[in-house]
Amino acid sequence: MTTIGFFALAVFGLGALSIATDTDIIAIPGVGQAPGIVGMVIAVAVFAGILWLAVRIKHPRFRSVWTISITTALVHLLAVGLVAAIATGEFVTAMAVMGGLITGGASLVILVVAAVASWAGVALRRTKAKHPQWPWEREDPNGS
């Protein structure tokens, strides 16, 4: 649930950033959409993997939120840069794309969204939240 929340909040946050600044998230011409798509897919996979490791323990710690959010943001940045380098064949263009993500605020959006979503995941695990049930699905307290 928190992985889907991370993805949804990231898409919303990046879209809101793009509208607020009136610029594209990747504003370098000729790069295309592949770096953004692959970067987000890899970021979601890394987020889910590290969060899964963090909440596997019986009583997960909230300090794992720092690791999850920083790693997710860095992996997103590196994945976008790598795909941009492959797509354009130019190292300088890839560095410009990565610099634009940092200075334009997109990396900060990913970092904050990953922190919020991972905090929610750890909190859900610590409270031992269960799926909702209809009244007729619950055990009868009278034993009948």
What do these coordinates show?
The protein is mainly α. The chain has one domain (2-24, 33-128). Helices cover 71% and strands 0% of the residues. It has 5 helices and no strands. α1 (2-21) packs antiparallel against α5 and α3 (64-88) packs antiparallel against α5. The chain is elongated and about 70 Å long. The protein starts with a helix and ends in an 18-residue tail after the last helix. The mean pLDDT is 90.
Blueprint (SSEs and pairs):
Elements (H helix, E strand, L loop, with lengths): L1 H20 L12 H22 L8 H25 L2 H14 L1 H21 L18
Properties at a glance:
144 residues; mainly alpha
Tally of helical segments: 5
- Oligomeric nature of the chains: single chain
Radius of gyration: 19 Å
User: Domains counted in the coordinates: how many?
Assistant: 1
- Secondary structure class reads mainly alpha
- Distance between termini? 35 Å
TL;DR of this structure?
The chain is mostly helical and 144 residues long. It is 71% helix and 0% strand. The protein has one domain (2-24, 33-128).
